[in-house]
Design a protein that fits this description.
Elements: H1 8-15, H2 20-36, H3 44-51, H4 56-69, E1 71-73, E2 76-78, H5 80-109, H6 114-121, H7 138-145, H8 162-170, H9 175-191, H10 200-212, H11 218-230, H12 241-246, H13 248-255
């Protein structure tokens, strides 16, 4: 599976006893399960390596999650909700495929209409009746299609002109970029539960720009954004990855300055290794 829905209520209900580190690792383990469509490996060292857990605190958290959230079998650690969603995904895909095959078969066996039979029965030198409609030129087509924005979520390649398709190709955000973007939105929700959901495709592309052009890691992005959401001033002014990218240096300097009521200005990075995504399914 390359996509699954994420229900915020289900996730919060199932993880309210967890700390931030365990929530983050739990989401990583879920992503791994859905991506491979098979149980997590029985070998803990193999699982640690795949998840990138290198410190003892993280490994202990993974073992606790395996114990309380997964069921150990001879095939590996299974998760009932994941298995249910994977089955539903394949059932839906099979139904769509069957419907497509049925539609194609119906078009193949469809009988010609009376007019088509009459025309097909004539000699080849007889021309079909012409219409008064003027043919659409390529210029007309381009003008019509250019009105369709490549940013529209349901826009197909046929609905977008050459320039729009090129702009879409230039977007190279990864699923990890989108996961990071959704984490940022989830962090905003901790301060303002009614905050309007953004365009996650645009947010993921901003994360990609920070990663590719500014050489920031997803962890660094989440840490600095999380720090801003804990700051009395910045939590109301730092509401998008684009704003984070714009104010990165200013926030970094501010973050290194000891704040009133705290022992130091350094950010506890392990606290932001975990978080709640704004979208996804468990």
């Amino acid at each position: 599976m390359n996509y699954y829905q994420h229900h915020i209520g289900d996730f919060r209900a199932g993880t309210f006893t967890m700390g931030r580190l365990e929530r983050w690792l739990y989401r990583d383990m879920m992503d791994m399960y859905y991506d491979t469509e098979k149980p997590l490996p029985l070998d803990h060292e193999e699982l640690f390596y795949i998840l990138g857990t290198t410190v003892e605190q993280e490994r202990t958290a993974v073992e606790r999650l395996l114990k309380f959230k997964f069921q150990k079998t001879t095939d590996g650690y299974v998760h009932e909700r994941c298995d249910s969603e994977i089955r539903a995904f394949h059932e839906k895909a099979e139904k769509a495929s069957a419907a497509g095959r049925a539609s194609a078969a119906s078009r193949t066996t469809k009988k010609p209409t009376g007019v088509e039979q009459d025309l097909n029965g004539r000699s080849t030198d007889v021309q079909r009746p012409s219409t008064n409609h003027k043919p659409l030129t390529n210029n007309h087509k381009n003008k019509t299609l250019s009105a369709q924005s490549p940013d529209a979520p349901n826009a197909s390649d046929e609905q977008i002109d050459d320039e729009g398709r090129e702009r879409r190709k230039q977007r190279r955000s990864t699923p990890e970029d989108e996961t990071c973007a959704r984490w940022l939105y989830g962090r905003i929700l901790t301060n303002n539960p009614g905050h309007k959901a953004p365009n996650f495709e645009v947010w993921a592309d901003e994360v990609r720009l920070m990663r590719e052009r500014d050489h920031r890691s997803h962890r660094e992005i989440c840490e600095l954004f999380g720090w801003a959401q804990d700051d009395d001033f910045w939590k109301a002014n730092m509401l998008s990855p684009a704003k984070l990218r714009e104010k990165w240096d200013q926030l970094t300097i501010k973050r290194g300055t000891p704040q009133k009521g705290t022992k130091h200005g350094n950010f506890a990075s392990q606290d932001y290794r975990a978080g709640v995504s704004a979208d996804g399914k468990f």
